[in-house]
Specification:
- By secondary structure, this protein is mostly beta strands.
- The chain has one helix and ten strands, in the order βββββββββαβ.
- It is globular.
């Protein structure tokens, strides 16, 4: 089984893209590219193995294995993935969030910030496709 993320150019508000799995396509949100810095950057382009794990915070999710210089990279629900060093909010710390549609949300500073909306629905669809089985994730830039 294989899933693919095709990323759009990274911005301070996050790295948005499309996540294809089986016959389904949803959108994806990651942190901006910040040279693979832990908890500040999306992960490098590449091919990764993913396995089902139980996260104390998120429950059953998939972990992206063997990311250079990183650990605990998860695929979980989230809406915001901005650069905190630039004053934006994030619910990601190097992880990946599927979502259904692009929009904006008011962040903790009261500003409107680009966001991935309806993440729970996209995540549920993704988890149903994966069915608890390991899969390969290919991440590429558009």
């Amino acid at each position: 089984m294989k899933a693919t993320i095709r990323r759009s150019p990274s911005t301070d508000a996050g790295t948005f893209g499309s996540l294809t799995f089986g016959t389904s396509v949803v959108q994806s949100l990651e942190l901006p590219w910040r040279e693979n810095r832990r908890q500040r950057s999306c992960i490098p382009v590449g091919v990764y193995d993913c396995v089902l794990v139980r996260s104390p915070r998120f429950g059953l999710v998939y972990e992206v294995k063997d990311v250079p210089g990183r650990s605990h990279v998860l695929i979980h629900r989230a809406n915001l993935g901005g650069d905190v060093d630039k004053g934006l909010d994030t619910e990601l710390h190097g992880c990946i969030a599927p979502f259904t549609r692009m929009g904006v949300m008011r962040n903790s500073r009261g500003a409107m910030q680009p966001a991935g909306l309806v993440s729970s629905t996209a995540f549920r669809s993704f988890m149903e496709w994966a069915g608890g089985k390991p899969f390969t994730l290919e991440i590429e830039n558009a």
